[in-house]
Each structure stands twice: as structure tokens, then as C-alpha cells.
Amino acid sequence: MEILLVKHPQEDICVWSGELTGESTVRSSYGNLLTKNSNQEMANNNIIGREFYNNLWHIDIPNKIRITNWRIYNNYIPTFRNLYNKRISNSVMCLRCKEGPETLEHAIRDCPTIQEVWLELNFGKQGTTSNDTLQEWIREHLTRSSGQ
């Protein structure tokens, strides 16, 4: 059985223009995304993001922790809020403390149960205010951990 995908068959050609070699790389893909994003707010976030990524990739921590930090920073963690938004969960309530919805901020920083863990690890809530975004909190603690 043969399935014809196009009416007029053509030779495949390389269409990636991000690299002179024509090969797609993570670096060229990221650069391509940055050039397509002319929004000023997005540009500012990219500068802050670059600082975060530079700190993240240059401190001496296991890759598993590094990748988890990246996932947290980009809200790629399956919190109950995220699962509810994707219609995978019926509830957003935090199962650890049952005091509120399990958002990323709550799961990582604000849940009373997780705060006890941070204090036990001598990480504490130093410098955290209700005005800090989770990204600001992560950047602050990452910078402190890298000794900068």
C-alpha cells in the first residue's frame, strides 16, 4: 500500500536558516525565537532570563537539580493548578496543607509544609516578601548559592 502525500513529489531541501551549516541546534532555535520576539516586555524578560540561565548553568549542582530549577522557573511543574487548567485534576487544593490552591508559588515557596523543609535545609525564607515573584525568589537564592 502506498500513500501519496503530495501531488508533485519534490526533493527534500534544508530550510533551516538559523545556522550557516543548515543544521538546527538549540542555540540557533533560541536565537530565532529571540529575534521574532520584538515585544519590549518580552525582551526585558529575556535579559532577566539570560542572567538566570547563566547563573543556573554555571553553579556546581547536579543536572537533575539544574533541570528541575529550569522547569520551576518556566512553570513546567505539574501542580494541581496546572493539572486543573489542563482538565487532568478536579481540584486545585494543596494536599500537604489544605490551606489553598497548589500554584507553583505555593508548592515551591509558600506552603507552610515546604517552608519547614526550607528552614531545615538552612535555606529559609530569607529575603522573601509577598511582593517577590517566584522567579525573583529563585534568582535571589540561585545568586546567593553561586556566591555572586
From TrEMBL:
Residues 26-118 form the Reverse transcriptase zinc-binding domain. It comes from Gossypium anomalum. It holds the Pfam family zf-RVT. It comes from the Eukaryota. This is Reverse transcriptase zinc-binding domain-containing protein.
